[in-house]
Amino acid sequence: MSHFTFLVVLELRLLAGSSLSLHSVSGPHVADANVLLPPKMTYPEEYRLQGSDGCFKWAWDHHDILSVLPEYNVSNHCSTSARLRSIAPYSGRKETAVYATDMHTGMVIRCKVYIGNFSRIQIFHNSIKLDLDGLATLRVGAFDNEENVFSSLVGLQFMWQLMPEADGLPYHLVHVPLKDSPLSDCGGLCGEVDIQIILEDSL
C-alpha cells in the first residue's frame, strides 16, 4: 500500500463555478464577489483575489479571522491582487469583507469572504484509463453543508491510498512528486504549486 500526503493546488479554483465570479466589466474590478475559505488548520488557508484595470489599496473587516497581503507590480508599484488568508481555527461559520479601493478613481469594490467548515470532499479527474508511463492529475474539491464549493484548499494536506479494484490483483500506479511533474514547470507563475512542493518535501 502506498501512502503519501498531498496539498491541493489552486487549480481547484476552477471548480468554484459562476456563482463565485463576476462577469467581465469595464473599469476597475475584482474577479470574485464571494470567496469561501476553510478555517486555519495545519497551515493558514490562502486564496489570491485578483483585480484588474486598477491600482488598489486593500482593507478588510475582522482582522482576527482574516489577513490580506497585497501583491505589487514591480514595474509601477501598483497592487492588482492580494492573498487572503484564513488565520483562525473554526468556531462557527463567519462572514467578513475585503475592500479594494482604486487609487485613481476612488471606486470601492467589496468582496464578501465566508469562513466555513467542510461537509464533504470529492475527487475530480479527467483520465479513466492511462497509457504506460502516462500521468494523471487528481484534484480534490470540498463542499459545505449547502453544497457551496470552497474557493481554495491551499494549505490542506491529504493522505492518499493506491488500491486495486479487487483483492489480489496487481497494480502499478506510483506517486510522482510534484517537483518531478509537468505541474512544476510554470515559470514561477504558480506560487501555490511552489508552496505545495515545499510542504511535500518537508514531510
Sequence-ordered SSE layout with sheet pairings:
Elements: E1 2-7, E2 29-30, E3 34-37, E4 45-52, E5 56-60, E6 66-73, E7 78-86, E8 94-102, E9 108-115, E10 120-124, E11 139-143, E12 157-162, H1 191-202
Parallel strand pairs: 3-9
Antiparallel strand pairs: 1-12, 2-4, 4-7, 5-8, 6-7, 8-9, 10-11
Describe the protein in words:
This protein has one helix at residues 191-202, and strands at 2-7, 29-30, 34-37, 45-52, 56-60, 66-73, 78-86, 94-102, 108-115, 120-124, 139-143, 157-162. It contains 1 helix and 12 strands; from the N terminus they run E-E-E-E-E-E-E-E-E-E-E-E-H. The strands form 4 sheets. It has a 4-stranded antiparallel β-sheet, with no helix packed on it. Strands 3-9-8-5 form a 4-stranded mixed β-sheet, with no helix packed on it. The protein has a two-stranded antiparallel ribbon with strand order 1-12. It is elongated, with a radius of gyration of 19 Å. The protein has 203 residues and is mostly beta strands. Strand 6 (66-73) and strand 7 form a beta hairpin. The longest helix is centred in the last third of the chain and has 12 residues, at 191-202.
The largest sheet is: 4 strands, antiparallel
Strand content: 35-45%
Average of the residue pLDDT scores:
75
| Number of β-strand runs | 12
What is the terminal-to-terminal distance? Answer: 18 Å
- The order of strands across the largest sheet is 2-4-7-6
Structural class: mainly beta
